[in-house]
Amino acid sequence: MPAGLIALALGGFGIGLTEFVLAGLLPEVAADFHVDEAAAGWLISGYALAVVVGALGLTAAATRIPRKAALLGLMVLFIGGNLLSAVAPDYTVMLGGRVLAALCHGAFFGIGSVVAASLVAPEKRARAIAVMFTGLTAANVLGVPFGTLIGQALGWRSTFWAITVIGVFALIGVAILVPSGTGERPAAGLRGELSAFRSGQVWLSLGATVLGFGGMFGAFTYIAYTLTGVAGFAPGAVPWLLVLFGLGLFAGNWVGGRLADRSIDRTLLWLLGALAVVLAGFALVAGLPVGAVIALVLMGAFGFATVPALQLRVLSYASHAPTLASGANIAAFNLGNAVGAWIGGLTIAAGLGYTSPLWVGASMTFGAVVVVAAAAVAARRGSSKAGRSSAASEKSALPV
Predict the structure, then answer these.
(1) CA–CA distance, 63 with 86 (Å, rounded to integer)
(2) Residues near 258 by Cβ (< 8 Å), separated by ≥ 6?
(3) Which residues of 276-301 are buried (b: 16+ CB within 10 A; e: fewer)?
(4) Residue 57, exposed/middle/buried by CB under 10 A (0-12, 13-18, 19+)?
(5) Confidence class of residue 391 from pLDDT cuts 50, 70 and 90?
(6) Cα separations (Å) of 203 from 37, 256, 313?
(7) Beta-strand (E) ranges in 117-219?
(8) Cβ-based neighbour number of residue 235 at 10 Å
(9) Gap between the Cα atoms of 126 and 113, Å rounded
(10) Angle at 196 between CA 379 and CA 368, to 5 degrees
(11) Predicted TM-score of the model (pTM)
């Protein structure tokens, strides 16, 4: 495994910790700033929306500079945002710190996906992307539960101080381990990168990402409330339950990367369909502690198993200019996160209970299945027409 992938995974670990750890600490943060659940949820959905902005704006700007330099600059931005969150005196400043840290998220993973894919042979690209995203899964297996535990024991600010330190180590790792050769200026330029969005398949891929991953994350945003308010677990049990969720993420990411290298669309159809069933099942068994734990693990496994395939699908249809399209797909992940969290918060505020975000997630994920199915059919028709056109051209070129 190229050492550069380790560095990318290290950066992903810090960013993943920032994104996900707040779900386990949301009740404590809400109480400290004297805001309700819906307002506290904006610390997560606002982060996700800022990722969208950063993924598009900063990735576009990064087409003019070497990729390694871009990754280093993004890690500096990440460190500054988490430091601001750690010292935030009120909700507004805390939200500002979250937004600042989030701006680097999409561009880092967008550029990092291109770098990761370039470090290995073509038939191993999905696995290389999965290795980079292993940082996110490791953050959930180890970082999020222990970050939640530290935050509950020493105050939630201590968790953000710890993330700041991790960001410094990630910065050093990228500087040392990412090969300088991967920092060469992309040949396509900004105009060339924008040309990737002429493809209908790219847009269908982005839509599947919004609905599929947004469904899972929207349910996860309020998971602490579901586990304590419906399943009946004590708040102190949440960090350990998140360990199980993280194990599901880790396993799903590993398996999903290998399946996607065989068949992207078939993998997505099966995984997204299974995820929709799991989310609906979770809503039905959430009141049973054992059932809730099993569903929590499966939600993580099937939810994150889709990530390598969703990212590789965009790269496959934008292979001539992948950087901005890759960043756009990271934006799509987080646009889905924001939409899922927002709708989930609305359903809770409407009095539909703490299982309602799970039903929202199941509906969104089923929509993703429909989009992928339509995209697969369109791709087959396009290939068939291209084949007939090629055959006709060859026939017309034959001597008579």
Answers:
(1) 32
(2) 126, 127, 130
(3) bebbbbbbebbeebeebbbbbbbbbb
(4) middle
(5) very low
(6) 33, 22, 11
(7) none
(8) 14
(9) 9
(10) 50
(11) 0.71
In contact, 349 and 134? CB cutoff 8 Å? no
Amino acid at the residue 72: L
CB 67 within 8 A of CB 117: no
Q: Is 396's pLDDT higher than 60?
A: no
C-alpha to C-alpha distance for 62 and 75, rounded to whole angstroms: 14
As a whole number of angstroms, the distance between CA 308 and CA 324 comes to 17
Q: Span 165-178, mean pLDDT?
A: 85
How many angstroms separate the CA atoms of 177 and 115, rounded?
12
- Cα–Cα distance, 333 to 202 (Å, whole number): 14
329: alpha, beta or left? (left if phi > 0; alpha if psi -120 to 50):
alpha
Distance, CA of 364 to CA of 367 (rounded, Å): 5
Q: How confident is the model at residue 275 (pLDDT cuts 50, 70, 90)?
A: very high
Q: How far apart are CA 210 and CA 332, in angstroms?
A: 5
**Residue 189: which region, alpha, beta or left (left: phi > 0; alpha: psi -120 to 50)?**
left
CA 91 to chain centre: 25
Distance (Å, rounded) from C-alpha 107 to C-alpha 96?
18
Q: What are the tens digits of pLDDT across the range 83-125?
A: 998 988 888 898 889 989 888 887 888 788 777 777 777 667 7
